[in-house]
Predict the structure.
Amino acid sequence: MELKIIIKEFFKSKAFLVSIFLLLVYSIFFNNQIVLNQTNLEYIYSLFLALFPLIIAIFTILISFTDNDFLLFLKSVKTEDNKKIVYDEIISYFTINVTISLISVFLAGGIFWFDLSNIIFLQYLMIFVFSYAIVSFIQLTRFIFYYATTKAKFVSISKKKV
């Protein structure tokens, strides 16, 4: 999986657009106000600490249900819009989710533990990262269902060949 593809997926995703929109709304309605105080950051930090291992667990479960034949099938099948290979898309979403969750844990933890919540730039950064992580996790959940349908399609094709 190329880093270029992952970066491209990061910027093209719905999570990025939603995060930019929420960042704009935040900047319009809460112009330079401190919204993420220490209490809010503690909750966000806890959420990210729970979300990160959950993403890893989901990926581990999916990998455990993947055999070599299905992996080759994923590498040969394109998405519904025929633009991307299913395997690349699944891997890029997991990579993005793991990376953004890890960044979120360190960012929220650093702001919380070092009491940096009064820095406006970090407020904006947290709003962006938090919203991106949540929306991206929702998209990841959608991919789990897509993965299941693709697996069902593979099983039906495999049974026809036998």
Summary: The CA atoms of residues 69 and 158 lie 9 Å apart. Helices lie at 3-12, 14-29, 38-64, 68-76, 86-113, 120-161.
